[in-house]
């Protein structure tokens, strides 16, 4: 900031700095009320996953047989299950499982798919043809059926569940990255880097992939929702997280036997899954619009 004199009085001159691309995207995202609502819900979910012991009024598997099958009340906000466990506390602890499975499964699929898509798009030719045909074979199998097959072959467990939820989504990341790389690799700055002697690895990591982050971020946000839903589906049919570990899918599986009289046992885990999936989709849609240069206002 500088001062200039006009008619003997000092005048403040403020220098305006340009906003970066990511700063402009954040400004556009904040204008989207639905996306911000989704972001708030996800932040609440993250708090539940990080500090469940502080937020949950009861323990992870604290059983009170004398209080079994109680409807929602002041002591148990969402009621209790057939073992007298507090459903609200188990939903909070179950958020940690959903977050771990969702983010690690998407991270695995995103990294693998990005490497495959970047190699296919950058080198082209036979490498592109072979890699994309492999992705086509993987895409020909329905993702849910593939996840069920992998989980049944590997067995139940957290690690196997993450692998099952991640493998089926690798082709979508590979195709997204490949399309972005094809639009970037012929730009002048890529030719300049190649003429300057930069290696292929450096060109891809330092110059191409940073310019492909926007579609990857959007795809990853929506992918977390799909991974959480896959996790809940596998647990519901007995191929995911096994009781007594709280997970929304196996809580739904337990509650289905009590739908006639104690239907709240299935209602609240189902609402938790619905709210998280809705929040992630709202945020993903908002990010897609915010990161699109054509949406500038």
Automatic annotation (TrEMBL):
InterPro entries from the UniProt entry: BP-dependent_transpt_permease, MetI-like, MetI-like_sf, OppC_N
Transmembrane segments: 35-56, 100-125, 145-170, 216-243, 263-287
Domain ABC transmembrane type-1 stretches: 95-284
Pfam families for this protein: BPD_transp_1 (PF00528), OppC_N (PF12911)
Entry's localization field: Cell membrane
GO cellular component, one term: plasma membrane
Entry keyword annotation includes Hydrolase: no
Membrane topology reported for the UniProt record: Multi-pass membrane protein
Homology family: Belongs to the binding-protein-dependent transport system permease family.
Name of the protein in question: Peptide/nickel ABC transporter permease
Organism this protein belongs to: Enterocloster bolteae 90A9
